[in-house]
Write a structure and sequence with these properties.
6-stranded parallel β-sheet, binds magnesium ion
C-alpha cells in the first residue's frame, strides 16, 4: 500500500509514550529512554516536514508529569534545553515554526527564556508548525479558557449569547491550529491522558505497542496508512 499524498492529515498529534519502560527493558535508567526519545522525535519531525504535513503536535510533558521524581524532571529540562540549543539552526533552515502549548510559566526561568526565544525567532516560518505540549493538561486548558471568558463577561466585554464553539476555541492554547486529524500513542497504552481533550472530539486514534524510542519512520507510515483507510463521518450518514 502506498501513501496518498492528497489524503494526508493536516495535523498529527503524538503521545510519545514508553521511554521509561523501553530503557528498563535494556537494563538502563529511565533517562536513557528520554534521550533516545529526543532522537526519535527529531526523525519524526523531519519526516513530517518532508511529507508536507502542516502541523505536528508532540506531547512532551504533561501537567501530571510534575508528580514524577525531581531528578527525572530536572533531566527532562536539561534534554529540552540541549534540544532547543542544537535544533534552532535546523528549524530556521527548514523554516519550521516552533510553538509551545501549555503553561510555560511553570518551568524554571532559563527554560522559559529558551522556549520564548525559539518561538520568537521561528514565528515567521510556516513550512511546518511544530507544536510542543509542555506542562500541558486538557482540563487545565479548558478551565483557564472558561475563567478568561467569565472575566470578560463580568466586564461586559462578551455577551452570554456570544459564547459558542468558535469563541471558546479562541481562548484555547491551540487557537490558531486546526484540530488534530490523527492522534498516535505509542507503548500500548490506550488512553488520552488529558491530551487535547477538547480538540480531539473527532480525531482518528492510532495505538501501537511499539515504545517511543523504537518508533521508526516505517511505524509512522503505518499509522498514516491506517488513517487513510478510515472513513470520517462526523456524525453524518456516509453513502457507499
Ligand atoms: C513518555 O515516556 C515521556 C514522558 C512522559 C516525559 P514515559 O516516561 O511515560 O515512559 P513510561 O510510560 O514510563 O514507559
Ligand atoms: C502522557 O504520558 C504524557 C506524555 C507522553 C508527555 P504519561 O506516561 O504521563 O501518561 P500515563 O501516566 O501513562 O497516563
Ligand atoms: Mg508513560
Amino acid at each position: 500500500m502506498v501513501l496518498e499524498t492528497s489524503k494526508l492529515p493536516k495535523h498529527v498529534a503524538i503521545i510519545m509514550d514508553g521511554n521509561g519502560r523501553w530503557a528498563k527493558k535494556q537494563g538502563l535508567p529511565r533517562i536513557y529512554g528520554h534521550q533516545k526519545g529526543v532522537e526519535v522525535a527529531k526523525k519524526i519531525i523531519t519526516k513530517t516536514w518532508e511529507l508536507g504535513i502542516p502541523v505536528l503536535t508532540l506531547f512532551a510533558f504533561s501537567k501530571e508529569n510534575w508528580e514524577r521524581p525531581k531528578e527525572e524532571i530536572t533531566a527532562l529540562f536539561e534534554l529540552l534545553k540541549v534540544y532547543l540549543d542544537n535544533e534552532l539552526e535546523n528549524l530556521k533552515e527548514k523554516e519550521i515554526c516552533f510553538k509551545v502549548i501549555g503553561d510555560k510559566e511553570d518551568f524554571p526561568k532559563d527554560v522559559q527564556e529558551k522556549l520564548s526565544l525559539v518561538e520568537r525567532i521561528t514565528e515567521k516560518y510556516n513550512k511546518l508548525i511544530l507544536c510542543m505540549a509542555l506542562s500541558y493538561g486538557g482540563r487545565a486548558e479548558i478551565l483557564k479558557a472558561t475563567r478568561q471568558i467569565a472575566e470578560r463577561v463580568k466586564k461586559n466585554e462578551i455577551d452570554l449569547i456570544e459564547i459558542n464553539e468558535e469563541l471558546f476555541r479562541k481562548f484555547l492554547y491551540t487557537k490558531d491550529l486546526p484540530d488534530p486529524d490523527l492522534l498516535i500513542r505509542t507503548s500500548g497504552e490506550m488512553r488520552i491522558s488529558n491530551f487535547l481533550i477538547f480538540q480531539s472530539a473527532y480525531t482518528e486514534f492510532y495505538f501501537t505497542e511499539v515504545c517511543w524510542p523504537e518508533f521508526t519512520e516505517e511505524e509512522y507510515l503505518k499509522a498514516l496508512l491506517s488513517y487513510q483507510q478510515r472513513i470520517r463521518k462526523f456524525g453524518r450518514v456516509y453513502e457507499f
